[in-house]
Hints:
Layout: E1 4-10, H1 16-27, E2 32-34, E3 43-50, H2 52-55, H3 59-62, E4 66-74, E5 76-78, E6 87-89, H4 98-106, E7 110-114, E8 123-124, E9 127-128, H5 129-134, E10 144-157, E11 160-167, H6 173-184, E12 188-198, E13 201-202, E14 207-208
Parallel strand pairs: 1-14, 3-12
Antiparallel strand pairs: 1-3, 2-3, 4-11, 4-12, 5-6, 7-10, 8-9, 10-11, 12-13
Amino acid sequence: MSGGFILINKPSGITSHDVVDELRKITKIKKIGHAGTLDPFATGLLILGIGREFTKKLSIFQKKDKEYVATLRLGAESDTFDRDGKIVEKPVEKIPEREEIEKVLKSFLGEIEQIPPVFSAKKVRGRKLYELARKGIKVEPKPQKVKIYEISILEYKFPYLKIKVKCSSGTYIRSLANDIGKKLGCGAYVDELVRTKIGEFSIEKAVDLSKLNSQNWKEFIF
């Protein structure tokens, strides 16, 4: 088999396109794409198509629901809604109780409207938002409807709140974190983000990029 799909566990610090470039070097196949961008700071499941026949089919994965584990830092805000942006500390008069946080999280269940981060790959008039933002061009992204199926607390010790989110395709966890911070009145941004599932595909089945080489990559395709 000269192509197929492969599940990669993306490390932090590189872009999703960097993963594509690395796979091109390993496989010596030029036509490679991925089914949904992960931010550079984020880690987790990335589905790639290797070969023209399979890159054409990546859209079937892009529309699938997603699952994430996110660690939010409360008491501060970021212009990118994550740790890589400009961080502004916010005075916290009262540390949120777990019960208060649970109530706020429940308010996001179901269909909601969220505004994509200004620093994102979302396109406006054919241009990616982050490209416009870096040039100082102000654009107000339009709200978009997404669905939050499940959202729960995994760990909480102020200022860090670890949550699990099951959501529809197109959901921005960074925007969700920012909105949670606003509702709590203390601000919040994403400090760590792991994509754990895309549809029925789980991170447990993914291979670390560092473990792939020209000799073994075909063992991991399907």
